[in-house]
Amino acid sequence: MCSTRKYYFFVKTKLDRLDKGESAKNVARNLNIVITALKDWRKNRHTLQSATETVESEVGLEARKIIKKPKLDVLDQAITLIFLLIDKAIFLKNTAGMGLV
Fold first, then answer.
1. Within this chain, do residues 8 and 34 fall inside the same structural domain, yes or no?
2. How does pLDDT run across 34-76, given as a tens digit for each residue?
3. Is the domain of 62 the same as that of 80?
4. Based on the domain organization, do 62 and 73 belong to the same domain?
5. CB 56 within 8 A of CB 48
6. Residue ranges making up the domain that contains 94
7. Three-class secondary structure assignment of the chain
8. What was the pLDDT predicted at 1?
């Protein structure tokens, strides 16, 4: 079974080092990535920077599709309340010395 590691780097981290004159080979080795990925990042610099600026803006945060608004707001609030009550009950049971759940 193959496991894949995912690394996330800031645009500033990965490209500023190249701008300062550091070799692509050293940067790629330090970030544990292949040189072709680094060259692709350099080639797509403007796309990467505009994407991060869009995500960080107000409009970008509202347009994100990862965090979806609930379809049934009342149901979502009820489920949240249930989990909070269960959490509180477990805490009170443990502090009262009745043991773990």
1. yes
2. 888 888 888 888 887 777 666 666 666 666 666 667 778 888 8
3. no
4. no
5. no
6. 69-101
7. CCCCCCCCCCHHHHHHHHHCCCCHHHHHHHHCCCHHHHHHHHHCHHHHHHHHHHHHCHHHHHHCCCCCCCCCHHHHHHHHHHHHHHHHHHHHHHHCCCCCC
8. 47
Asked if residue 69 lies in contact with residue 52, where contact means CB atoms within 8 angstroms, the answer is no
How far apart are the C-alpha atoms of 58 and 31, rounded to whole Å?
A: 30
Q: Are 55 and 67 in contact (CB under 8 A)?
A: no
Is the torsion defined by CA of 24, 30, 36, 37 positive or negative?
negative
Question: Confidence band (pLDDT; 50, 70, 90) for 85?
Answer: very high
